[in-house]
Amino acid sequence: MKTLDIYDELKNNPYPGRGIIIGKSADGKKAVTAYFIMGRSENSRNRVFVQTEDGIKTEAFDPSKLTDPHLIIYSPVRVLGNKTIVTNGDQTDTIYELMDKQQTFEQALRTREYEDDAPNYTPRISGIMHIENGEYNYAFSILKSADGDPDCTERFTFSYTDPLNGIGHFIHTYMGDGTPLPSFEGEPKKISIPDDIDSFTNGLWESLNEDNKVSLFVRFIDIESGTADSRIINKNK
Q: Which domain holds residue 25?
């Protein structure tokens, strides 16, 4: 698979929707993840990321303008022991709670399906990072309707063991703008990952469509020590 430039990927898609990146820094020392949200409606754009005890959550920037919290208020990132969960919806909590009861990533997601936002039927995209004893692996999941037919839920899992230095993968909800919005297709895109968290954060933010971007979260985790360094950028300030 060709290694893509993540910045070009974002610049060439005005509305990828919500996106998850997971990979390893070029020096091989950091497990890397990023999550962004975008919005077309006033309700979707009226959000910020805020830090929590075990990750981040979305909140309304102006609570008086929040018209429907369904599907837009959730915890995108939570940490469960040596696992970091990153998703585009409240399935973060499903994965956290069921894995805490010794179920697997895939088993937890068997209890969920795509989002109930007809006619888009937005895919639920999820990622999990596992760091233990200096070893690192990660996986992605996508739950989507069958080409817009809500009678069938398609479930795909992609696992990456001993990931390569400087390589990551990128999955997002939409192939682009449209009515209805076209769901992501294919396997996660292979991209390059740099060493520096600030240059990566700034590059991602600057590449997202100015009108539609809302918030961005980036985290670099030291694979040996488990120490995490994070960044949050919110358009609403």
A: 6-234
